[in-house]
Amino acid sequence: MFNGFSHSVMGASHEKKGTVCQDSSAYVANDRYAVAVVADGHGSKKHFRSNIGSRSAVEATLETIENFYRNADEFEEKFPKNPKLVIKSIEKQVIARWNAKITEHLRQNPVTKDEKKDFTTDEFKKIPFESYYGSTLITAVVCEKFSFGFQIGDGSLVAVFEDGETVMPIGDDESAPANITASLCNSNASSMFNSFFEQNKTVAALFTSTDGLYTSFGSDNDFLDYHTIISSQLSEIDEFEGAIVKNLTKRSHFGTEDDTSLSCVYSQEIVDEKNDVLTAKVEENKRLAKERKERMLNRA
């Protein structure tokens, strides 16, 4: 049985400006699979409907995964034979669904005078309508036989394995040229995704988060340790989830003061069975963090 949670909180900078939260997040968990997804609408002025774009991205992703799982046995049998091809097919369907959603939204909600007021007539004509809704997207999926994920734009995907190892299986974004943001609104979006597939190691939990979370930490080690701590508490999620929301809210008010989203899916059986292992890993990480701090102080 899979379980999960997702939360999006508004950043302090958006509260000060009186703007909307541009992040969206969701999860789906059932007996067969679980999906964690977050999306971060772009902040620049030409992306003035990016909150709708991020919400549409989350919806398009969940609908696409559900569609591929309509014949679950066949899907899970074929997937490992050519995971890159299957993931690419999923990504393309997500883009198609997202484009259909934003096209329909624009049809029902034409651009207003207020939305145009920050542009000259010539400036506005040069903006592709997809850019109004520009958004990143990070998705993680786990089933009994394997796990996978895909990402366009910034943000993070973290995997916590049953032995407590915690990693970011998708490396730094190399798909976008310098100074160009990888986004669903780009005409070549399908070539800008990065992905991972894992069937040799058993996942305890998968996390997706927008960049507001990562930038609130001082190092990759601290960021990864944070996810190990959460994983060690998933057996008692009903008591712990409130603390997660408070922590996300606190983090969204420091550093970049950006909107922050975190979505998680996990195997209830594995986190219960391996709770002692995960808890021991948390203690080990604390010891290693202390040693790193001491080494830094000694160098000073």
Short description:
The chain is an alpha+beta fold. The chain has helices spanning 12-17, 50-68, 72-78, 83-108, 113-116, 121-125, 129-132, 211-214, 220-232, 237-251, 268-273, 275-299; strands at residues 2-9, 23-29, 33-40, 137-143, 147-152, 156-161, 166-167, 194-198, 203-209, 260-267. The model has no long low-confidence stretch (mean pLDDT 94).
Walk me through this protein's architecture.
With 300 residues, this protein is α+β, with helices and mostly antiparallel strands. The protein has one domain (2-299): Phosphatase 2c, domain 1 (4-Layer Sandwich), CATH 3.60.40. The protein is built from 12 helices and 10 strands. It has helices at 12-17, 50-68, 72-78, 83-108, 113-116, 121-125, 129-132, 211-214, 220-232, 237-251, 268-273, 275-299; strands at 2-9, 23-29, 33-40, 137-143, 147-152, 156-161, 166-167, 194-198, 203-209, 260-267. The chain has a 5-stranded antiparallel beta sheet. Strands 2-3-4-5-8 form a 5-stranded antiparallel beta sheet, with helices on one face. Strand 2 and strand 3 (33-40) form a beta hairpin. It is globular and about 60 Å long. The mean pLDDT is 94.
Topology record:
Layout: E1 2-9, H1 12-17, E2 23-29, E3 33-40, H2 50-68, H3 72-78, H4 83-108, H5 113-116, H6 121-125, H7 129-132, E4 137-143, E5 147-152, E6 156-161, E7 166-167, E8 194-198, E9 203-209, H8 211-214, H9 220-232, H10 237-251, E10 260-267, H11 268-273, H12 275-299
Antiparallel strand pairs: 1-10, 2-3, 3-4, 4-5, 5-8, 6-7, 6-9, 9-10
